[in-house]
Write a structure and sequence with these properties.
The chain is 74% helix and 0% strand. The chain has eight helices and no strands. The two termini are 38 Å apart. It has 181 residues and is mostly helical. It folds into three domains: 90 residues, no CATH class; 50 residues; 35 residues.
């Protein structure tokens, strides 16, 4: 789907949304949305703390584990609906290929993000300060740009197209080498 088709689709959706009230509350039907085991989990969390307020560390650890599990369930539902909405906006609803590529990029985004944030958490404070200083000096604070992804795209191509794409990349690299001297 090209940019103009995406733009037209977004305009149609924006017009539909403009016709309806903009201040909406999303209501989740608790009984129909969650399974019985998920409801049990939520109810255990809602019952805490015990009425006598005597809490052991083990009870607190168990409660924290339950809260983390509940957060995972809610995030799973949120991501499911976000993926569904984004897929309907950006992809051809009848194209299994669009859906497949969308799913690859959608889920790989989160894996890449988690990997990146995990690595950032290992940085020393001086490395973090240096990185932020370089962002500011180069005018990149608050700006986004696209990372080069040719290798990732090439790996997703059907096997018969890989050689063609690889030769295009090789030609492009050789032109750049000739130009750059």
């Amino acid at each position: 789907m090209n940019n103009s088709a995406i733009q037209r689709r977004l305009e149609v959706l924006a017009n539909k949304m403009a016709e309806e009230p903009t201040e909406r509350v999303i209501v989740v039907d608790y009984d129909r949305t969650f399974t019985d085991s998920e409801k049990e989990l939520f109810e255990k969390i809602w019952e805490f703390p015990p009425s006598d307020n005597n809490i052991t560390l083990q009870e607190l650890d168990t409660q924290i584990e339950l809260i983390v599990k509940a957060d995972q369930i809610l995030l799973q539902y949120a991501l499911f609906h976000l993926r569904k909405i984004m897929l309907s906006v950006y992809a051809d609803p009848d194209s299994k290929i669009d859906e497949w590529y969308f799913n690859q990029h959608f889920f790989n985004f989160f894996v890449d993000l988690m990997d990146c944030l995990h690595r950032v958490r290992t940085w020393q404070d001086k490395d973090k300060e240096e990185f932020l200083r370089e962002l500011e000096e180069n005018g990149l604070q608050g700006k986004c740009y696209r990372f080069p992804r040719e290798d990732h795209v090439n790996q997703l191509l059907p096997t018969k197209n890989r050689a063609t794409e690889k030769s295009k990349l090789t030609k492009k690299e050789s032109v750049n080498k000739d130009r750059d001297g």
